[in-house]
Design a protein that fits this description.
Blueprint (H helix, E strand, L loop, with lengths): L1 E8 L2 E9 L6 E8 L8 E7 L8 H5 L3 H7 L2 E5 L38 H16 L2 E11 L1 H12 L6 E5 L9 H11 L3 H4 L4 H7 L6 E6 L5 H5 L1 H8 L7 E5 L6 H18 L4
Parallel strand pairs: 4-5, 4-6, 6-7, 7-8, 8-9
Antiparallel strand pairs: 1-2, 2-3, 3-5
């Protein structure tokens, strides 16, 4: 790992790193907030997955999360949203596919399959890198995210219940097999066999799950993407047979932006901290 920069904030530090990824076969960047440990050897760790067009910097710069991570004593890790520097055919043609839009899947179709392995990158390589190189407690890990990253948090959390004990999301893409963003991404990354898509659809995974970890979702009622792309109602219907139900909150008047995230990020960090027993 190469340390690119660091900044002190509250009682901790935000640090930015680059490393050569075995999974994506590219350099990958991530940021990490490490709080003051107050004499503890390790701390719970939250993996934040960002949305379309974002990088490892957006959440750290815009969400205002460090004050709450410091208060509750949790580490936050933010990976980039896709491999970079490849210049694959079509990779930079659209903002909602390719660079900055990895959708947290393991691509099976050329030319994406050689590098766009974001499922394995986050849940395997980056997870192991963090717990072996930073004071992160491997037994107290959660995952959360926004939009495409909210989709990623739900899916990776549900697919890896032994690694991620808590899940939350802001305005997630809840049923990507049923919305234009997801259909576009899955068609290119995973091919035309729609059965293969089901492994990356939270609304399907939740229906199939025998039990669920603590889950919380916040969705703004004035989100311009709610009806066509996010489909929170599909997730709600999928959750109906589970006890206890995931917490799905509609926040009146909020849109899809970081103004929304920064307003409720305290609630999410407190939610994870409570269930990870770090309060």
């Amino acid at each position: 790992m190469k340390l690119l920069k660091q900044n002190k904030t509250f009682r901790g530090y935000v640090k930015y790193y680059e490393h050569d990824s075995v999974t994506t076969q590219t350099p990958m960047k991530f940021s990490i907030f490490i709080p003051e440990l107050d004499g503890q050897e390790s701390a719970p760790v939250l993996f934040w997955l960002s949305g379309l067009t974002c990088t490892e910097e957006n959440f750290m710069a815009k969400a205002g999360a460090q004050q709450w991570a410091d208060k509750y004593g949790v580490i936050i890790v933010c990976p980039d949203t896709s491999p970079r520097g490849l210049d694959l055919p079509g990779e930079h043609d659209d903002w909602d596919f390719g660079s900055g839009a990895g959708f947290y899947v393991n691509a099976t179709q050329a030319p994406w399959s050689g590098h766009y392995q974001m499922d394995d990158y986050v849940a395997q390589e980056l997870f192991d890198l963090i717990v072996h190189n930073f004071p992160a407690d491997i037994d107290r890990a959660g995952i959360f995210g926004h939009s495409m990253g909210g989709h990623g948090a739900l899916v990776l959390g549900l697919r890896n219940p032994k690694k991620f004990q808590t899940i939350s999301a802001f305005a997630p893409i809840c049923a990507p097999t049923q919305c234009p963003w997801g259909i576009k991404a899955f068609s290119n990354y995973l091919g035309e066999d729609r059965d293969a898509w089901k492994a990356y659809d939270a609304s399907i995974l939740i229906k199939e799950a025998e039990s669920l970890p603590p889950i919380m979702v916040d969705q703004g009622t004035d989100d311009e993407f709610l009806a066509e792309q996010l489909k929170t109602d599909v997730l709600e219907r999928a959750c109906r047979d589970h006890v206890p139900l995931p917490v799905i909150r509609y926040q009146e008047g909020y849109d899809h932006s970081y103004y929304f995230i920064s307003t409720f990020v305290h609630d999410h960090i407190a939610f994870h901290a409570r269930h990870l027993k770090s309060e």
